[in-house]
Amino acid sequence: MADNKVGFQSIDEYIATFPEPIQALLQALRATIKDAAPDAQEIISYQMPAFAQKGNLVYFSAGKNHIGFYPAPSAIKAFADELSVYKGAKGSVQFQFNEPLPLELIGRMVQFRVAENLKKAEAKVKKKKSD
What pTM, to 2 d.p., does this model score? Predict the structure, then answer.
């Protein structure tokens, strides 16, 4: 893996810094996120690939032995039972390179985050109108 992972302009640029097998995992994850959030915009945030729709949805990155997926603490909590087999923290989960990515689960988590962001955005609009 490349050591100079700074200043990325695109997700393609980020993914290109990894060996082919890791690139394939990252591209599968990216495609799953795109399918689950077709209106989301690809961005680089905190030097990581991310998707945004009415605010940040999810981030992902590749570590030494795993892919880190960052769907926000609310999604980690909502899917806690299914995520219990993975290492993680309050707002993140780690998928080991030597295990298949749980793409269906990831897709549902992304959809959860889209719904959450849209609900928050709608509430802000309603609040503005009532002010």
Answer: 0.89
